[in-house]
Specification:
By secondary structure, this protein is α/β, with parallel strands linked by helices. It has 3 helices and 6 strands.
Length: about 170
């Protein structure tokens, strides 16, 4: 009987330690629900790459909808605004085709963005919740249509950038 009571007491003690360690854990987002209604203006483009602002804006909206913590709203109904400015864009050739050394076979692409997530309509105007610089990188193969390949690569890097930005906003508060 003593062996069973010692095992039971040990089991209860271990459970108590585990529950104490998890007592402050919160499941889900740390973003205040009052800040979840977000307005996303068109991304500002300060680099020499056409259509990057439209592709990144679309990726941001898609990621916000996919992630589910925030909701896209018109500026008049939003409690927050997500401002994004593309500050750097690089595309480099990683390797060339074996049989044609003048034709690229694989590229790398990097997009860097300055991001500010603000609370709107505060007594003091706007309060910055978080700000920072985010960067995303990916590689892509050059297909038969190089322009289409680059556009696909831009979409992939924009998606990765949007994931980082949304995660940063959701975890900021």
């Amino acid at each position: 009987m003593k062996k069973h009571s010692f095992a039971f007491i040990s089991f209860v003690f271990i459970l108590a330690i585990l529950f104490c360690g998890c007592a402050s854990y919160k499941l889900g987002s740390t973003l205040d629900p009052a800040l979840a209604d977000v307005f996303v203006p068109t991304v500002r483009n300060t680099v020499n790459q056409t259509d990057i602002e439209a592709i990144v804006t679309s990726a941001l909206i898609s990621e916000i909808q996919r992630e589910g913590t925030m909701r896209i709203r018109a500026k008049e109904k939003a409690t927050t605004i997500l401002e994004v400015e593309i500050i750097d864009y690089k595309q480099d050739t990683l390797r060339y085709h074996r049989d044609d050394l003048e034709r690229a076979a694989e590229y790398s692409m990097t997009i860097k963005a300055k991001v500010t997530f603000k609370k709107l309509n505060d007594a003091n105007g706007e309060t910055v919740i978080s700000s920072g610089v985010y960067s995303a990188y990916d590689t892509f193969l050059s297909g038969i249509d190089t322009i289409a390949s680059k556009r696909g690569g831009l979409s992939q890097v924009s998606k990765k950038l949007a994931e980082q930005i949304v995660e940063g906003c959701v975890n900021a508060w």
